[in-house]
Specification:
251 residues; alpha+beta; 6-stranded antiparallel β-barrel; two-stranded antiparallel sheet; 5 helices; 29% helix; elongated
Length: 251
C-alpha cells in the first residue's frame, strides 16, 4: 500500500484543484486592480553613458540605471494597463501630529494577489517598481475644479509569499505586496503625464500633484521671511541712529 502524503515533489492534481478554488475566491470577493508594468530604466542619451550610468543593449527590469547610488530614477512603463483581482484590508487613514509636522500613520497597504493568474496576466512575477491603481478608491466628489475623479496610485515596494497562501500540499498560492502611495517624482513621470481621463486635456499630474501648492506656500514663506529681515534691519538702523544721536548729545 503506498504511503499517504499530502506533499508531493511535483505539483499534481491536488495542487491545481486547490489553486482553482483560491482563484475563484479572488474572482468572487476581490476588487479590480490596474497594474502599470515596470519595463526597466531608460537608457542615457546616445554617447552620454558613463561607468556608473551605463548604456544597456536592451531595456529590462533587472537593469540598474545608477550603479553608484543603486537607483532607477528614469523608469519606463508599459503603455498597456493590466487588470487583475486583489484583496486587502481597508483601513482608516489617520494623521499623527508630531514635532516635525503632520504625517500619515498608516499609508502602507498590504495587498494579496493570486500567483499563477498574476504571472499569466503580466507575463512575469510582479515586482518592486510596478505601479498599482485601485479604481474603487476613486473620489468622485472631491472639491476641485476638475470633472474627473481623483485616482489612487501605489507603487510596489516588496513582494513575498503570503503565509495564509500555503495550502495543505505545502505549495504557495498567494503573493503579499507591500504598497506605498506614489508622489510627484521623477520615477513616475511617465504615469503622471498620462491623460486623467480619455479625451481630457488634464494630466494625472495636474490632478494628483501638490507641487504647485507647495511652491506657492514656499514662495509666501520666503517673502514673509525677507519682509521680517527688512523690518529687523530697519529697527537696527533706527537703534544705531538713536545711539549715535545720544552719544553726540552727551559729548
Amino acid at each position: 500500500m503506498p504511503r499517504i502524503s499530502l506533499y508531493k515533489p511535483e505539483r499534481g492534481n491536488d495542487y491545481h484543484f486547490i489553486d482553482k478554488q483560491v482563484y475563484e475566491m479572488f474572482t468572487v470577493g476581490g476588487t479590480d486592480i490596474n497594474i502599470h508594468k515596470y519595463l526597466g530604466p531608460n537608457n542615457p542619451e546616445e554617447g552620454e553613458g558613463t561607468a556608473d550610468q551605463p548604456t544597456y543593449d536592451v531595456v529590462k527590469e533587472t537593469n540598474i540605471q545608477d550603479l553608484l547610488f543603486l537607483e532607477n530614477r528614469d523608469r519606463k512603463y508599459d503603455a498597456d494597463v493590466y487588470t487583475m483581482r486583489g484583496i486587502y484590508n481597508v483601513q482608516d487613514i489617520d494623521f499623527d501630529l508630531s514635532q516635525f509636522g503632520l504625517f500619515l500613520s498608516n499609508d502602507t497597504l498590504m495587498l494579496t494577489i493570486h500567483i499563477n493568474s498574476s504571472v499569466k496576466t503580466l507575463g512575469r512575477k510582479i515586482m518592486p517598481g510596478d505601479v498599482i491603481e485601485l479604481p474603487h478608491l476613486k473620489d468622485e466628489y472631491a472639491a476641485n475644479q476638475y470633472d474627473v475623479a481623483l485616482k489612487r496610485f501605489y507603487v510596489v515596494e516588496d513582494v513575498n509569499r503570503a503565509a495564509e497562501g500555503f495550502s495543505a500540499t505545502w505549495y504557495p498560492h498567494l503573493y503579499r505586496l507591500k504598497l506605498k502611495q506614489i508622489y510627484d517624482g521623477q520615477e513616475y513621470s511617465e504615469i503622471l503625464d498620462l491623460p486623467a481621463e480619455e479625451g481630457s486635456d488634464n494630466t494625472l499630474r495636474d490632478i494628483l500633484s501638490t507641487y504647485e501648492k507647495e511652491m506657492q506656500i514656499s514662495m509666501q514663506l520666503l517673502i514673509k521671511q525677507r519682509l521680517m529681515h527688512l523690518k529687523v534691519g530697519l529697527i537696527l538702523i533706527t537703534i544705531i541712529q538713536l545711539l549715535q544721536t545720544t552719544t553726540a548729545l552727551l559729548h
